[in-house]
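Researcher: I'm comparing several assemblies side by side, and this is the next one on my list. It has 314 residues spread over four chains. Same procedure as the others: predict the full complex and return the structure.
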Amino acid sequence: MAAAEMPDDTADTAVETVQREMTAFARRARASAGRMHPELSLVSYTLLGHLEETDGCRATDLAAHYALDKSTVSRQVSALERAGLVERRPDPDDQRVQVLHLTEAGRRILAQVTESRRAAFRERLAGWPPEDLVRFAAYLERYNAWRGGPLGGDEDR
Amino acid sequence: MAAAEMPDDTADTAVETVQREMTAFARRARASAGRMHPELSLVSYTLLGHLEETDGCRATDLAAHYALDKSTVSRQVSALERAGLVERRPDPDDQRVQVLHLTEAGRRILAQVTESRRAAFRERLAGWPPEDLVRFAAYLERYNAWRGGPLGGDEDR
DNA sequence: TACCCCAAGTTGTACTCTGCAACCAGCGAG
DNA sequence: CTCGCTGGTTGCAGAGTACAACTTGGGGTA
């Protein structure tokens, strides 16, 4: 289907649908995330996941990535540390900085939650033809890679 | 591309990508929604939108649709009513029920916020070929239409 | 070196959103 | 009429968040 064959209306409707569905998803994810893993909120999980990818990052980085206030990150990290999931190490190069690392327990819990989330997603996506799955994933990546506007143009990734 | 040509790994990776990207979106939407329209939270906006579609629904319906506690809905509706955006009318058939309706002001505000959100999405999706847009929208609808699991199997839509 | 400004993080405070539990009020069946 | 169920509200508590003020350390510049 070429662009020329498609009326503007169709694209407009698609934009609205994307908007509506993405919003619906956001609402649901928020509502259900807490219930799935009471001991690891969506934010904590996300922060933990980020730490696994970029082991040894700073609290400020997290704040920038997730458009959170540094105080929020500070408290979240405190909670995670209290729970024994992350470690704060002083940065030898800059005494102001705390380098954050996952602990073994943190890694374990994260893997566990990731697995259960993955299972849920897999179940949810079970009926999808693989090629649709791949395309859907690509669209989402493309959507989230976008920068520069009021609707999520943060520093993530 | 037929399913038979695609290794399981590819589909698995796609599932993980969908999971990761959807989660990322949820986090961002949450972070940015409040900043865009301070006077209309994401939940309020969603409820208002729902009321526009199904004018004259009950608070319990909203709670069921959005997997929210009825107390939460009650308070949200109270706030919206205080703001003059919705009206509670007694149901003549059942005195327990309050039928919710958008007011003129509510309709106006909703249209305004919708427009600004739409503009943001449109900007974000500006570079997309229309046929990709349509396919993306279809995937999202399909994803959100799913029911039955711990990851959002609520009654919505 | 001394001073100044900026950056990283913490803490105090306040507000919103949320769920749970307890409660009230109206409906309908026996 | 009484009992149980449903729709809704309210009290309470906890999580998440932002903003502002503050502390500490780094890096220039005079």
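Model: For your comparison table: The two ends of chain A are 32 Å apart (CA to CA).
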